[in-house]
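Q: What does the assembled structure look like for these inputs?
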Amino acid sequence: MNERKIRVLIAKPGLDGHDRGAKVVARALRDAGMEVIYSGLRQTPEMIAEAALQEDVDVVGLSILSGAHMTLVPRIMELLRANHQEHVKVFVGGIIPDEDIPRLRELGVVGIYGPGTLTEQIIKDIRSQTAQNEKYLNP
Amino acid sequence: MSMVTSVREGNRLALARVLTQVENATDEGRACLNDLFPYTGNAHLIGITGSPGSGKSTLVNKLAYLFRHPPEGDRPRRVAVVAVDPTSPFSGGAILGDRIRMRDLAGDADVFIRSMATRGSLGGLAARTADVVQVFDAAGYEVIFIETVGAGQTEVDIARLAHTIIVVESPGSGDDVQAIKAGILEIADILVINKADHPMVENTERALRSIFDLALLDSSHHHPDEESLEYPSATKKGWQIPILKTIATEGVGVELVYQAVNQHAQYLKQSREWLRREQIRLQSILDTLLQHELVERWRKSTSTETYQNVLKELISRRISPYQALQILINGVTND
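A:
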């Protein structure tokens, strides 16, 4: 039996303690048949990259409401690259001002979701992003 | 370089990917397992089970930390953790949340934590947990923790997969009649009463102690060669099950659990029980594979149409479930 599930790491980097959004998304992805690893609060970029590696996830979803996204996201992208995990799709959710969006996209973030985003949208995007992500060959 | 060589040489990315292949039961995964198997058999496999919320993950966190930072005289060991959480039977998805409690292990290159969803398996583990454990064993992890889903009374598969079973109880979960029912208490090698700062802890401890005293009386009538080959039974000569109290969140009492785990490993090796458990483990792996393979073969040999027709007959109550079975297995029709 060959079963491939989409594996997602939902992580809360930095110091904000508001995880309702992260939990809502985690739950919605679960209900969409994905396997969701939830990191818990106050993760460093290093902890997130390490979890993404050990769990061999297809997607990392970062929930940031502290305003520190322009510090945290570049660092996480850099660590994923250092671990040869360029194939991992990174999404960011939370409070992201419009003027930061182009820079985040440049860094390789494939989806940015603010308040009011429908979970269906996130599910749809993850499915299409991972479908084109032909599973990597040898490291 | 092949994936197997990379895994053996400690490449963590290669390991993570092989684990995925193995978990998904792909052909590559199977090929890797075949190549890795000769290198297995060295790790100490420690099963952790207990009801949901009893503190399994928190205890694993502190215990694994002690294996990495042992008391003086002990050598640090490489640690892997396989943490199993349930798959939703409705959506097929899962939330794997055991890592949340394992923060103390972050940033240590000699610790590897992998979360697994049960993907429809009952019994407290995933179908591929045994395979994942083999990969870690071959990759040189010396101590492998296997944390089951929150388990109650029948999730005892872990007994056939691990060398040492820690059952985690928490105060206030049922009276002494719960404790004499069949189930996970029977498979304990080490019993931990976690949340020992709870006011009910004395009652729980008393109930559990009295049960284990009964079991001890009973085991004096037992002949070792009558023991079940299906499950290793815990109460036997030479090993008295320690009942230990911990407050895992604060690390209180965890060093005693660490010592008990090491003593149990010693006991297993000296008493040849280690070999017996290895035999049970491998036999159980083989039997499970056989069952899966036979079901698969049957599925391939029977058309969906035939199956649906028999099912229709059953639902309209023209045939019984056993008659339906007869038809599907032997091709016997009852008309």
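Residues 1-36 of chain B form one domain.
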